[in-house]
Each structure stands twice: as structure tokens, then as C-alpha cells.
Amino acid sequence: MVHSSQTAQGAVQVATYLDDTYLDQVETQVIAVGERGGAPWAAVEHCLFHPQGGGQPADRGWLDDVEVVPVRDRESGLVVAVEPKGGKLPPLAVGQEVRARIDVQARVTHAALHTAGHLVEAVGRLQGWELLSNNHFPGQARIEFQAPHEDARLADGEGREEATAALRDAVAAAIADDLPVFARYEGEGRRLVHLDTLHCVPCGGTHVRSLGDLAEVVLPTLKVKKGRIRVSYSASHRSH
């Protein structure tokens, strides 16, 4: 199933970024133009750009050779391309043919971090913890949980290291098993991302093809503050 949004004029925008994480460019056309805070924006039919959201950064992208920043326009529901700070979006017209492309290295970095975040959430849930929040930004990636019942292991440093070791072992096992990562849609277009049968969560982010694509997944010793369990992590995409 393809996720899409419709303009007031009936034009449909396809969320191409959800269909293929690794697609780096596409020929498409402008379906809507407008302004945000006095700055022009343009929306294209086949949207290759992931906007910031769900704990994931926005893609770095270009329309033809002009760098743009993708954002979700609340009024229209479209992902629109706006001029970056200090840049200038050229005049574009509805129906105009353009080439959209992304920085694929940045994309796979974000996809690896987002997928690794789901994996950390999955193994944290296996400990009986409940998700509170997540952040998949490079250098800031973390998952925060709470334990519905007192977890004695978290009371001291040795216990926290023991709990972290259990998370590391579970993460390493899932990566070694190269569990497939895929998305399915439920009614009303609700997108669910699966780590095989290990984990399933509603998500509009980009992801790797399977957990074997993850490399250098590192979990420092978890921290506990005011009842919140913070599991920081880092990850990269495996070179092929």
C-alpha cells in the first residue's frame, strides 16, 4: 500500500520515502505551491523527502540543483520543500517537471538509527519496561522507559550494568539473526513497522531492510533518574 495525501485541487502526493529507503532520486512534478511565513514552498507528486518527525531528522534534499528542507505543512497535510536558511527557492509552477534527490548517506544513517531505536525499545520491553519517549537523532539517540514495578537491578551501578548487558546481548542476537524489517498498513492507512515477530509499532520513519544492516550498535550503561530509565545508543549502516 502506498501512503498518500491529496491537495485541495485533487492532486495526490505519494510518500515515496516510505516505499524505498534507498531510492536517492526521482523525476516528478510540482503539484502545489504556497508560502509559509512569507517564504515560498513547493510540493511534488512523488515526495522523496522525509520531514522531521517521530524522533527522526529531516532528509537533506534538492529539487533540481537547489537545496531544500522538507517540512510537514499543517494546513495542507503535504510534505513541502522550503528554502533553507540563507538559501533561495526559485519560482516553481504547478505541473513543472523537476528532479528530486536526497543525500542517501544521511538517509541511511537516519534509517539505521531509527531501526536501532525500535530494536532497543523491543529488548527494553522484554525487560518488562514501558516506553516513555524516543529520540533517533545522530549523537542524541536514546530510548526512555519506566518500570511499572520496582526493578531491583536498577538500584546500583552493578545492577544497572547487569541490566545493560542483558539489553546488549538481546540486541546482538537479533542482529546476528538478521531479522527482516518491513512495514504493513492497517485500516485508515495506519503504518506499522515490524522487526519480524520481535516488535511492531506505528511509525512513519525510514528503516533498513533487515537488522543485519545495522553496524556498530553501542549501548553505554543505562541511567536512571526520577524513575525514568534512559538507554542511550549509537548505530550506523553496515557497508556493503
From TrEMBL:
<keyword id="KW-0479">Metal-binding</keyword>
<keyword id="KW-0378">Hydrolase</keyword>
<dbReference type="GO" id="GO:0016787">
    <property type="term" value="F:hydrolase activity"/>
</dbReference>
<keyword id="KW-0862">Zinc</keyword>
<dbReference type="InterPro" id="IPR009000">
    <property type="entry name" value="Transl_B-barrel_sf"/>
</dbReference>
<protein>
    <submittedName>
        <fullName>Metal-dependent hydrolase</fullName>
    </submittedName>
</protein>
<dbReference type="InterPro" id="IPR018163">
    <property type="entry name" value="Thr/Ala-tRNA-synth_IIc_edit"/>
</dbReference>
<dbReference type="InterPro" id="IPR051335">
    <property type="entry name" value="Alanyl-tRNA_Editing_Enzymes"/>
</dbReference>
